[in-house]
Amino acid sequence: MQKILADLLAENMNQWLAIPKCREGEKLYHYTNLSSLKGIVTQHSFWVTKSDFLNDKNEFRYAYKVTKKVCEKLILNESNRALFRRMLKAKIEELNTLVEDQVMSGCYVLSFSKGYDSLLLWSEFAKSQGYCMEFDYSQLRSGIQKKMKMDGCVIYNRKEQCKLVEDTFLRVLKRKDDGRRVLRKKLLSETELVTEEELNPFMSEFALCSFLYSMFFKKECFQEEQEYRFVFWAFHENSGMEIFPELTPIHFREKAQTLIPYIEVSYAHQGGQNPIRAITVGPKNNSDLAVKGIQYFLRNEKIPISVYESKIPLRY
Predict the structure, then answer these.
(1) Which of 188, 204, 290, 315 sits at a 20 to 30 Å CA gap from 25?
(2) Cβ contacts of 89 within 8 Å, gap of 6 or more
(3) Are 208 and 6 in contact (CB under 8 A)?
């Protein structure tokens, strides 16, 4: 499994998974507090949170349930389904162990939204008193793409999630080699049985795809977040894999008496252009002073960014 993971990380993972992406010219929004805004602007970097410390602790288990349901529909023979369920669970657990051990710390997720001036997001991420930073998607992506492994829209629609898993299942099953052709015939048959040995190479690849989809699948109740994610992989100790010689320092921030692991990801100003396009002041800030303070701050940093007030009419 470690070799499969290394091979995949060496490639462009966006080619493996059909996750919808922003187009050139689109904007992304980051809701944050004043302290984080100052750090992003002056240090040209983000604090990127470890994936298992995200807000929705159940989202990775949710994606596994979606994958299992789709595969059970495609595999017609009950014995094959039982074997597949057992092996999928084991492979996912192996991946979880692999990316969480002391050698390979795994996934870190940087979240944005496609929603501008959203009451839900103001409340959830900035307590209605923070700031909304507007980024140009293309310039942001270009500035961090050397470190990034995947990016895309979070998918909330269950039918769309199932369709992506099904397409991936069939695509991985169609690899052009004799063993995979035989496996495809057996696995989609009502009567022929597959062995664990026959299924194992396919399962290693498919389980990894399923694991990666889990970073982009969430329940429909979260759809108003309109989340867009950039996914990074970090190694904090020697991984033993030559394609990843660079180690990334791990840091910790405090939140609700809990230490949250994160890495710092810097963004480049491609062609001298800042990917930050504008800053909007939250609806419950003392708007006049907040706008003036940000304008003075940006002028002092010699950064020409427009500053706006939220249009949401909240009162204390």
Answers:
(1) 290
(2) none
(3) no
